[in-house]
Amino acid sequence: MKKLIFMAFLTFAITAKSQDSSQSEQLKNTHSFSLEQAISHALDNNYTVINAGRDIQTAKQKKWETTADGLPQIDGFVDYQNNFELQKSLVPAEFFGGNKGEFAEVAFGTKQNMNARVSLSQLIFDGSYIVALQASKTYLKFYQNAKQKTDLDIKEMTINSYGNVLLAGESIAILRKNKSTLEKTLFDTKETFKNGLIEEENVEQLQITLASLDSNLKNTVRLLDIANKMLKITLGIDIDDQLILTDKLENLTITNLDLAFSQKEFNTADNINYQMALNLEEQRQLEYKLQKSKALPSLSANLNFGYNAFGEEFQFFSQNQKWLNYSNFGLNLNIPIFSSLARSSRTQQAKIAVEQAKTQLSETGQRLKLQYANAKSEYEFSIEEYATAKNNLNLAERIEKKQQIKFTEGLSSSFDFSEAQRQLYSTQQQYLQSMVNIINKKASLEKLTNK
Q1: Do 120 and 262 belong together in one domain?
Q2: Residue 11 DSSP class
Q3: Could you read off the pLDDT of 147-203 as tens digits, one per residue?
Q4: Do the beta carbons of residue 164 and residue 436 sit within 8 Å?
Q5: Which contiguous run of DSSP H or E holds residue 234?
Q6: pTM
């Protein structure tokens, strides 16, 4: 009986675990992306991109906040005062029939006071407000440029991460193929050694190469997992979701082989960094105008309506309470006269900042031209490197195959064969890396041209 209960409990536990595992797998989403689809997804769902969009929304609200400062402002006030001990004043006692030269204590007012009023204020003229309106537009433009820069950064990051995943995947496939071939060669070599036809050193040399190859394979598998997670974060998807890449490394490489693209004329004004430097100059110009505007007078108006009520008891909400109304209109003119040259000093500082921004803009333009020339050179070199690596791979494969035949027939030493293998493995990685380089360098060039 105990055995039956135990078996039933074990079956239930296994079934429950299986269901939990199945539900866990169902909770994971599966994503399948080409490179273009990955870029599009990242530009909508990347965490940094999302927050950059929120910065624009905040800037729009800030712009309206600045605009509202110059529009009518209406405020309501209710003041209540309980004079539980009225303030005393001294008056000549003779006013009340007392002796001359003496003073009597008199309390003025009531214990309960309430005042309800509405105030309307309107700014009529203020130079700094006009400048603030212009600055709010520049402020919004800054965050729009920042969002565009973020999009370009995320696009480049997505391309690089996508390429790294493909690179790791292709490397694993090649390493596994090399390992399988080497294991067969090692097995045949061991059999030959057992028959006493070759020296044990040949076997040991192959074992060293196989151990190194196996270690590289395990490391690349780990790198693939890391590269996958980095790409998921860039795409803005859960790190535990399933991700399938539909593009192939070689196809992407061929797509990005475009020497004509690098021959196009570079316009620094199209670059987002130049536009942001230009935006900074505009901000400094407005700050300069702001300091100058503070020497102008400002004019504002206000209109007040209110009621006062007084009493010895708190009866302000009763029908018998008497309320006394009042109203007034006022103008406030502020004329700056003399600040001991403080305003002049701030204006000069702002003017210097404008000159610094202009110099920075010129420097940015020159640096961008240099960056473009460098990126163009690196892209063209990556194309040349790819052609060289492809040719070298064909040669390395032929050399390794010849050395394998010679080694099998006893015409070549294990050192020569191992050297040919290492050369092949190195050339294979160089070939894969050259393809990724073309994709990455093209992305860097596109980023500079704001494509």
Answers
A1: no
A2: H
A3: 999 999 999 999 999 999 999 999 999 999 999 999 998 888 888 888 877 788 888
A4: yes
A5: helix 200-235
A6: 0.83
